[in-house]
What does this fold into?
Amino acid sequence: MKAILLFHLRVGVRLALQSFTPLFSAIVALITLNMYPAAMVAMIARDLFGSPPSTNMLVLVAALALALPAWAAPRMAHGLNGWIRHLPVSSSVNRRGLALALIVVQSPLVTAFGILGFVARVQGIAVLRPILFRLALLLIGAAFAAVPAKNRAASGVLSIAGALLALFGRPWMTMPALILILAADACSGPIREIRAREPWRAAASLFGFRIAWRAVGWRIFAPYVIAVLPLGVTALFIDNNDLTGELLAGTVRFGGSMAIVLFLSALSEKLSVRRPVWPWARSLPWPSLRRVLEDAFFLAVHTVPLVVLISLIHARSAIAVLLLLPLLASRATAHMRRIPGRRTGNGAFVLEGFFASAMIALLPWTLLLALAAAPVALLSARNQDSRQKVTRWLEMHHDAGGDSLSWSA
It folds into this structure.
């Protein structure tokens, strides 16, 4: 029994040291940034140990006392499902050892209470024993509430109720608060088994999305900057002209659609450079349609901020842009497969997008045609992907005549 309690105690000390640095760094930064640091420390000491203590200070102390064990409990509980279950100790001893470790995790708060108590004594404020007893019950109750026991719902409610009753109640309420905490310990039951979270396997869902995001990274901000330009021009045009009705909606449809077109063009071009359409990917057990859908989803999902901006200008036009998005994302995915063999980048897609934007701006009913054409565009992208040759060699676009290492020089 002694060995298991020492084990939990050492675990609590290690986690307390981990929480000590960031917590005290934040407190010290808050105090030193104040114009009068010494006066601020004295004020905190008066609020905590004064008669009566400040309610706001007690709320802050309660929040910290509950947060530290809640942060540490999952880190401790995962180690209780292995060899420790084979030791000849009862479940109650193991649970109380964990509660002891969670109390130790709150050592930074105990240290802060000691410093503030010393400051209060220097100011002539008598640090009464009842407030110390109430703070101790708060720490114990918060620790019992964080223990992942089998009956945590009941024990957590009783523990938190006892801790808050001891902290905010009158002095004579400390005894009922202690009874509530003891009742929580009695009804807790054994520590429930916590299964380790299974890692996300590399071959799991959204594999292509993860690779694309890792390839693009922070470079995704450049397409957003490009896409905001037509939206800004559209907003200025609306502000400088008295547009209403269908004329206003058509203007926003055109400007919003062109913003999406420019964004998809820039993002797909970056993606084709940073993560080329790999010919060897055809050897993987995934069909071409899946690879195309993953690329189209990656392109479309990043247009959400732009659609939100369009809705702020004109909500009804944002719906029209959303209806056009499947066709644009599918066509951008198809053009990605052609970029490595071109010297003009994604210019053909921009021309297609300009034509589609103009059509929905002038003839809104063409959105029905765009929706009907989206599956056809997706199949076209799939065909482009299936035509990729595994043994294809693409020479880099540079002046081979000035490259002494080029085989075609």
About this structure: The CA atoms of residues 258 and 354 lie 7 Å apart.
